TrEMBL record:
Record's protein name: IclR family transcriptional regulator
Regions annotated as coiled coil: none
SMART domains for the chain: HTH_ICLR (SM00346)
Superkingdom per UniProt: Bacteria
Disordered as annotated region, ranges: 1-27
Polar residues compositional bias, start-end: 8-19
Organism: Microbacterium terregens
Domain IclR-ED: 92-274
Presence of keyword Transcription: yes
Gene3D superfamilies with a match to the protein in the record: 3.30.450.40, Winged helix-like DNA-binding domain superfamily/Winged helix DNA-binding domain
Keyword Cell wall biogenesis/degradation: no
Location of the HTH iclR-type domain: 29-91
Pfam families membership: HTH_IclR, IclR_C
Amino acid sequence: MSVMPDNSLASAQWGSTPNPRLAGARPQVPAADQTLRILSLLARQPGPIAARTIATQLGVPRSSVYHLLATLEEHGFVVHLPAERRWGLGTAAFELAGGYTRQQPLAHLGRTLIAALADRAGESAHLAVMTGRDVLYLVEERAPRRPALVTDVGVRLPAHLTASGRSMLAALPREQVRALYPDAASFADRTGRGPARPGELRDLLREVRGRGYALEDGEVTLGLASVGVAVLDHIGWPIAAIAVTYPTDSARDAGTLAAHLAPVASELGRRIGGARR
């Protein structure tokens, strides 16, 4: 007759399963544990890293790392950059991040800030997050006597065409952008304007980084332009973006509008535990 260990006996008595970490035991599903550790490691990096780096940092055999990465790549959670022999997060990981963002109080925390921004700027303002190659709008505040926009709550638009999306793409590692937009087939079009090739997007994002904010003019809706600024987390990763949209013929100065956006992005980042801009 075998004797049940004390922690198992307690588990049986109280109807709970002991945490293997707390009990000092090995994970009951090593592959799942290693997979989650790989994703967590990639999420903490400023850019894609080599498989051998993953194996070394996690203490996992390199052969196992390659098998797990291949499975993650098949499901879109990681991407392989053959030229650099590195691995980074894929679009499915962005989907998870967007799902978390939608379920946590980002929209609630940002709503009053976006409303105040629309009042100060006198233009419609919105808050969006990245999800794959799209932006998803979480909050919109329409300014008085301004036209209705396509950026309503729950709407998705191609990130490379929007000021919100461009501000977030400009804050991503260049390798990550290249993985999201590997060729011309990756670029959607709405009005015949905007980047249509990886090189054009690369040049545009270089301008965004140099300027400190993103612009779009007629690429989402003809006759309307937008200015966007990214909200960054504690390691500089873009977790959201805020933007204002205005009629092209209103002669608004983009730099002045961006000056309204910057402190709002900083405050929202502070509220959700990110870094100040």
